[in-house]
Every structure is written in C-alpha cells, then in structure tokens.
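ok here's the first one, seq then struct tokens
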Amino acid sequence: MSSKPTVSVIIPTFNRAGFLRESVTSVLEQSRPPLEVIVVDDGSTDDTAEVIQGFGRDVVYVRKDNGGKAAAVNQVLPRARGDFLWLFDDDDVALPDAIERRLEVLRVRQELCWIFSSHYYGTTGPDGRIVRGAKKQIKVLPEDELYHRLLINCSFLLQSCLIRRDCLAQIGNLNESFLRSQDYDLLVRLGYRFAFSGIEEPTFIWRSHDGLRGPIAERHAASKRLQVWINYDRIIGRWIREQLKLADFTKNPWNVTANESVNGRLALFKRAAVMASKGLIPEMVDDCVDASRICSGALHCEERILCEGLIRQPWFWAAYASDAPAFWRGVRSLIKTKVGREILMFYSLALLHQAKWHDTRWLRRAHHVSMSLRILIECGFLGWRYGG
C-alpha cells in the first residue's frame, strides 16, 4: 500500500437518475478526494448516462446489461486502482469528511482490513435533495464480540465501509447469485476472514424512499423488501452453519487458534442465536437441544440472555407460521433434561416480556401469552417424567 492510501469509489446504479447526481457530487467533494469514481450503469432506461456525462472526466462511466448489483460491481473491480474500495449507493449522500475520517482510523490501526461507520437517516425534500434526519445509533463492540453480532444483526451498511482492495480480492468479490442481500453476504464473508472495527459517528446519509428495489429479474416495491431479505438471509444462515466451526461463534474467527478449547454449550447457544436471526427455526431448536445435553450445570448469565434473545428475533416470528411444528418438537425434546427445562423457562419469560413491552396488537399479545403458558404447562405435565 502506498504511503498515502488511495480510495476507489464504485457506485452501481439502475434507474436512479433523480438521485444519482447528488450522490456522485458528494463523493467527488470529499475533503480527502478519491483516486477515482466509477459509476456502473446496470442497464438503466432513464437519464443516467446524461447525468454522468455532466461530470466529464471526473467520473468513469461503465454501462452493462442489467444483472443486479453484484454483477455490476464485480465487472469493474478489476479496473479499480485504489488501495481501498468504497462501494457506495446511488441514492445516498456522503458527508464531506467520510474518506478522511475512516482512513485516519485505518492508518492508526493497520491490522484492520476494513472499517464501518454509522449513518444518518434521510428523506427527499421538496427540491429533490436529501434532508438529513436522525442519527443511526450503533455501538462498536469489543473485537471478540464484533463478528457474532454481525452474524445476528448487521447494525451498519456496506456503503459505510472502507475495504482493503487486496482483502476483497481474496474472498472472491460479491456473490452474483444474490439479487438482494448481496451486501450482507459480502460482510459476513469479509468478517470471517479479516479483522475489522468501526466508528460510531456517521459518514453518510441513507435515503429512505418508496422507489422500486432490485434488478429486473427480481424487481419489488419497498413494502416487499423485508420478505425478500428474509429469503436471502436464510440462504446466508445455512452457509454460516455449514462453513463456520463452533469455535467461530465464541471468538472472532481470525483470533481462534487451532488447539484452543471451546465452551461447547455456549457456542451452541450462540449459533442458535444466529439461526433464530435468520428464521431457521429447526436449526435453532437442534442447537438448543444439543446444548441441553452437554452438561447438567445451570445456565450462566450469558447463556440465559442468549436463550431469551432467541424468541425476540424478528425473523423468528416471520418463520414461525410455517415452522411451528419444528419449534414444538424441540420443546418436547428440551423437556427431557434439567437444562432443557431451564431453557424453556427463559423461552417463556421472553414471550411474556414480548407481550408486555413490544406487542401493540391485542391478538398478537394474546398469542405470545398463550405460547408462554403452553410451554409452562408442558413442562409441568411432562417434566415430572424426566426428573421434575
């Protein structure tokens, strides 16, 4: 890497001419200018080409047939020359010192391969320009907790990240089979291989709008994006389960040594938390059952928190309608051990907490209370058979 690190900005775009000019301008006017700005037009049918022509030689313009964000970015990665890559979105707006602040952290902490940040929420004003709103609150956790938190819930966005170009090359670029959630898939793979950290201050404004999302092959309204995300998150969750060792769930993977002992029960609970966050209820249940059989000692504080957190994951409830039988089969398996029954007590507590503090609809609140009572009843009627 050069003594003065350089940054290549890549902006994939599809039919966002109305937002694109403001986005490109914000990265060109950085206090620490980028080496280059590359805009990849993924087959737009609006005025995207004319907008980019207005920037002259300041922007490299590449046009391709529509194939999704991942394919667009991958096409231009080989021509990027910067030491770091910034994959920015065509509808967001960078703060003036976004590059400078992140490079300063990376200069001081040269062991890091990438860095993330917070952002501001934004909307589109009457003149079409972005209006800055509230700050996204994130907490940069200790490094031995960072990766597990990323696996459960990514609190930051890819467009907040600066990534060393050679690190990205080693993990194989973006996954072109993902027409959505390709950003999260990339971050999971990067975090598995390379050390990272973040800053809690924003570096850009994330624009919220009702425009269409996705490439032509999977175009969808903003109101449908959660369902699209969960479908791809499940795929990512299965990859995590297949590729990561249990030890990877208790420490950041790059810090785990070959002969290091692992708290198997805690690792299973941590993996169960990841499975719940991806709506993979059968896998979540299997991990809890396996954890209940490892040893008979009472759950410690971290394990209790993890057990309660399983039921609070949004994707758990998105998947429950179709996977309820698997959940209740797991309940009956957990009843058979003392630790399993303790796990179920924390399931029940989480359901009651959800009903009291988070459910705004009476029908949903009643459903969660009834689930909690059913768990307690089954523990009472069946638990005595296995030692009370």
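and now the second one, same deal
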Amino acid sequence: MRHKLQMYLSYLLVYCFLVFVCNRVICAEPVKVGVSIWTGWMPIYLMEEKGFLKKRSQEYGVEIELKKFKDYLASVQAFTAGELDACAMTIMDALPPADAGIDVAAVLVNDFSKGGDGILVQYGIDGSNFKGVEILLEEYSVSHYLLLRYLETIGLTEKDIKVKNTPGDDAGRAFLSGNAEAVATWNPHLFLAEDAGRGYVLFNSKKIPGEIIDLVVFNNKRLKQNPKAAQAFVSAWYDAMDMIKDSETRQEAISIMSELAGTKPAEFSKMLEGTDLFFDPQRAAAFLNSEEIRKTEKKVVKFAQNHGLINDEVKLRYDATVIRTVRLAK
C-alpha cells in the first residue's frame, strides 16, 4: 500500500512539474498581435514607436510581438488561422473567426467611427434619386454595412442600387478622379473630395453612433494562458492615449502617427476628428459591459448572416477585466 502511495505521489509530482514547465513555455512564447493602418489603430503603432509597449511588456514580464499588415483583411485571416494571438479588428470582422470556432474575446475598445466612414456622391444626387445609382465599395465591409443603414433611412434596399465591389481606398481615389458617381469609403478620401469640390458626404457614421466599433480581440484560450500579455498591451494603449490628449505631447504624437500612416499631420488631425478614441479606461470598461455593444452585435450578426459571412448566430465575448486590472501611468 505504501509502495503504491509513493508511486502515486511520484507520478503526481512529475505531472505537476510538466504542467508547470508547459505553462512557463507557453507564457515565454511571444504573444503575436496583428494590426493594420487605420486612424483608430495608429496609437498602437505609437505604442511601439515611443517604447510604451516594450516598457509595459518588461514591467509585466511578457514578450509581445507586433505584426503589421498592409492588408487589413489579411490580419483577420491570420487571426482566424491561429497565426495571431490577438488582432485589431472591427466588431463585424470579429464574427467570422468566432463562427470558425475561435473563442473571441474583446479586451479593448479603441474607437467609434464618428464621421470617419461615409458615402460620397456627386452633386445632384440625394435620397430622392438614389435609386439606380452605382456605388463603389468593398463588399461585406463596414462600408457595405454603412450603405445598408443609409438605405434603411430612405426606404430602399440593396436591390434598388448597383454595388460594384471595389477596395475602399481605390473607391475613394476613383471618386476624386471623377470616375464614380457614388462611393462608400473613409477619411481622408471624404474630406479631400469635399475640399476639392468633387462632391459631398451624403451619409456618414455620425448618423449611426456606436455601430462601427474598432476593437482589440484575443483568442480567449491564449488570453487565459497569458493574461499579463493583454494587461501589458492595454496599459501601453493608455500610455499612448495620455500622450495624444496631453497638449504638450499631442503634436509629437500626431506627427509620428501621420508619418507612419503615410499622411500629413494636418490631414491626420482631420482624420482624428472623425474618430471617437476611447481615452478613458472607465468608459471603455463600461461600454464592454453595456447592452449597447450587444445591440450593435445583433445588427452586424444579421448583416453577416444575410451576406453569407457566417453560418450560425455567433456571440462574442466582452472581457472588461483586463482594462480594470491595468496599471495606468502616474
């Protein structure tokens, strides 16, 4: 009996040791976070450029590797394929990974679009004669969603207009060159077209506040294995927020972000005007726990189902605990 007990205890000790070693190895692996160029995600680039991410990673004893994508959808696909542990994406684009079986946990709200996305039309086009218009936009994107929300306001459906699938930046450039009567795109194309007298913004994301939401999501399995990585990342985000909102450092932050985004500081400042950044962690945590985000999720789920982007009615996980446990700069 004693011999069996000794063997059992030996096996138990070996098992505990292996679990300990495996967990250390998992936590030692760099946490890969994907990001792409967008106004509301440029603070993530700022986090790296100013050393906030490195400092916070050292403080929390983790390693975070920022993976930068030129193509936004490629970052979402990499997250879905398990090549990334976390990724910056819209609430809409978080649905397909969840539909594919990933336990998607939103740990950070970056921003709302508040005019940064819109529908540009030539002068003379409005809601009264929008039927039959050909509009350039990237299908199944937030631009597509924005169009459908506008059509609802004028009593039309997608069948009443012609959609030409075109990447958002290409659509914006086509409008500026006079080769499109209507496009759904984003800044800087919106204000550049208006400034050039090419047309006007018929409808924008200000009309649907809180519906185009940018997030940082984690694979929840990885989040559970290494929660400190998420805490370090979110802490660095708020370091960047402090730099942007401080009048003494704001201009430097804008200069850095505009250069990395490939725009001029004055243009980037305008782009920020159409972006409601979440500077306050309490506001972000409250929103992640709110009914508002769940109502928006239902709307985008319906859009995704109607366009075959997801098979089932998926639900995302909203985890405000990370924001509540971060160490803010003093």
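notes on #2: The chain is about 50% helix and 20% strand. The CA atoms of residues 80 and 101 lie 9 Å apart.
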